[in-house]
């Protein structure tokens, strides 16, 4: 009888160890994956810029400063390493784009250009997607951090070497900025 | 958050269990129906009908499980949402999928000027979302986003599996029972006198009565079961939509506009799938909570 109880206990404890390990691994994967998603969207954004600029250049001959700002921001984004740096460069590019779109309001011909409109719509969608991917990333970090700080998750986290992870804090305001309507 | 995730899992588990039992119940009801039909027809047909009926019931339930989304899409005559006019629709769903960690469902559009939408499929990997032309034309971006977030919540919660199964399987039970009722009516008119003679006729009469009772009761019972559950699902999907979007304003705006909807031409069987009830229903048979109540709940978030 006692041997059976011991066997049962060993099984229960063993499964708990496995379950907790798997939960940590699964959450880590979720977090890494959402980071990759942010990366994908930022890459898409920088890939669209040349198209946008060539669509815009013919109309905005006198807006060199604004166009240069976008080109520079794109260069910074392409050259950036690490998520934080990339996010920062991505935000800079986004605000540079905003001024381009604001200037475009004064060019009726440009605003009627379907190519330009499509690019504008696409870039605005990417902005949303970046925000959503970051939100999912932070949700994942939150579940993960809760698990590493509550009992008994804390013990397992220490044992397996899963440490607390950082939120993506920068540019929380980005989502609150009014979107370019079209 | 962890708490929310837990209740999320709880919803999913409940839906999977309900779906399993629904399939079981429908299978039993179908078999009982065929058995009754076999008895009512009597004699030589009995075994043929039983065997055929069993095969039909199993094929039917299996097809219902794997093909329910296609059936729902086909029943509203929806087409795939590709092309530049649906670019925004696609973009919004892609964004919300990033926010929820779901794979992107297949997107459809159905032709109707009212604002409405539904989701279907057996799991998130095989899910579809369908919206009306009216929703795309009349809703501004953040309101359409609210509607789509609501539909994605149904997908994430596995509501789609249970609700589509109910729509397809129960809808069909209703049709079969109706056919049974009609043939019985005709045979009792034409052959009523003959069955009065002898004990065999008496047995047939009893089976007929049971058959009629079954035919009337079966769909009502299953429909009531479904009604009891789906109102809660709408509230749950509303609140997870807010979780995905971090603001209830989009969905509130959309629901306000839906209050002005006029009835749509859709089959009663798929009606419970929709974001807001597409047809006029009696209070008693409502599959959706009143829009005013849903709006009030969202406003408190």
Question: What is the compact description of this entry?
Answer:
The complex is a heterodimer of chains A (182) and B (301). Chain A is mainly α and 182 residues long.
From the spread of the alpha carbons, the general shape of chain B counts as elongated
DSSP strand content of chain B: 5-15%
- Major sheet strand order of chain B: 1-2-4-3
Low-confidence stretches of chain A: 172-179
Helical fraction of chain A equals over 70%
Please tell me what the overall shape of chain A is.
rod-shaped
Q: In the CATH hierarchy, what is the architecture of chain A at level 2?
A: Up-down Bundle
Alpha carbon gyration radius of chain B: 22 Å
CATH H-level homologous superfamily name of chain A: LemA-like domain
Total number of domains of chain B: 1
Total discrete domains of chain A: 1
* Structural classification of chain A: mainly alpha
What is the count of DSSP helices of chain B, taking H or I runs of 4+ residues?
9
Tally of contiguous helical segments of chain A: 6
- Largest inter-chain contact set: A-B, 24 and 17 residues
**Number of DSSP strands of chain B?**
4
Key features?
heterodimer, A: 182 residues, de novo design (two linked rop proteins), rod-shaped, B: mainly alpha, 9 helices, disordered N terminus
What do you see in this structure?
The complex is a heterodimer of chains A (182) and B (301). With 182 residues, chain A is mostly helical. Chain A has one domain (9-166): LemA-like domain (de novo design (two linked rop proteins)). Chain A is 78% helix and 0% strand. Chain A contains six helices and no strands. Chain A has helices at residues 2-57, 64-79, 83-104, 108-111, 114-149, 153-160. Chain B has 301 residues and is mainly α. Chain B has one domain (8-76, 158-299). Chain B contains nine helices and four strands, in the order ααβαβββαααααα. Chain B has a four-stranded mixed sheet with strand order 1-2-4-3, with helices on both faces. The A-B interface holds A 30, 33-34, 37, 41, 118, 121-122, 125, 128-129, 131-133, 135-136, 139, 142-143, 146-147, 150, 175, 179 and B 1-2, 5, 84, 87-88, 91-92, 94-96, 98-101, 141, 246.
């Amino acid at each position: 009888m006692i041997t059976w109880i011991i066997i049962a206990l060993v099984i229960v404890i063993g499964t708990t160890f496995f379950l907790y390990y798997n939960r940590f691994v699964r959450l880590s994967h979720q977090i890494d994956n959402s980071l990759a998603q942010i990366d994908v969207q930022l890459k898409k954004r920088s890939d669209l810029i040349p198209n946008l600029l060539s669509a815009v250049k013919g109309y905005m001959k006198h807006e060199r400063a604004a166009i240069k700002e976008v080109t520079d921001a794109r260069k910074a984004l392409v050259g950036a390493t690490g998520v934080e740096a990339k996010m920062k460069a991505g935000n800079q590019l986004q605000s540079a784009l905003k001024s381009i779109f604001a200037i475009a309001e004064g060019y009726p011909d440009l605003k009627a250009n379907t190519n330009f409109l499509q690019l504008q719509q696409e870039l605005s969608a990417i902005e949303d997607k970046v925000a959503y991917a970051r939100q999912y990333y932070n949700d994942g970090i939150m579940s993960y951090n809760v698990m590493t700080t509550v009992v008994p998750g804390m013990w397992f986290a220490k044992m397996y070497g899963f440490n607390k992870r950082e939120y993506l804090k920068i540019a929380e305001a980005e989502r609150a900025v009014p979107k370019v309507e079209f | 958050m962890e708490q929310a995730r837990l209740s999320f899992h709880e919803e999913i588990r409940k839906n999977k269990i309900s779906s399993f039992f629904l399939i079981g119940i429908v299978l039993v009801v179908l078999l009982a129906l065929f058995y009754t039909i076999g008895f009512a027809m009597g004699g030589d047909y009995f075994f043929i009908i039983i065997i055929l009926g069993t095969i039909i019931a199993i094929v039917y339930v299996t097809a219902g499980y794997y093909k329910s989304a296609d059936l729902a899409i086909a029943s509203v005559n929806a087409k795939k949402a590709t092309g530049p006019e649906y670019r925004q629709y696609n973009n919004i769903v892609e964004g919300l999928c990033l926010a929820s960690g779901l794979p992107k469902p297949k997107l459809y559009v159905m032709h109707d000027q009212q604002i409405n939408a539904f989701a279907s499929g057996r799991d998130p990997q095989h899910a579809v979302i369908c919206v009306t032309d009216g929703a795309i034309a009349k809703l501004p971006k953040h309101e359409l986003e609210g509607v789509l977030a609501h539909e994605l919540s149904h997908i994430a919660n596995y509501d789609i599996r249970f609700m589509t199964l109910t729509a397809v399987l129960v809808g069909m039970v209703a049709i079969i029972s109706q056919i049974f009722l009609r043939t019985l009516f005709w045979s009792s008119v034409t052959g009523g006198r003959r069955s009065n003679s002898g004990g065999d006729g008496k047995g047939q009469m009893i089976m007929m009565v049971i058959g009629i009772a079954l035919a009337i009761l079966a769909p009502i019972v299953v429909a009531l079961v479904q009604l009891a559950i789906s109102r809660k699902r709408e509230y749950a999907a509303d609140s997870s939509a807010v979780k995905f979007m971090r603001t209830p304003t989009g969905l509130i705006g959309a629901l306000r506009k839906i209050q002005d909807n006029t009835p749509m031409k859709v089959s009663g069987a798929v009606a419970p799938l929709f974001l807001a009830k597409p047809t006029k229903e009696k209070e008693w048979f409502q599959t959706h909570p009143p829009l005013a109540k849903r709006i009030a709940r969202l406003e408190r978030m």
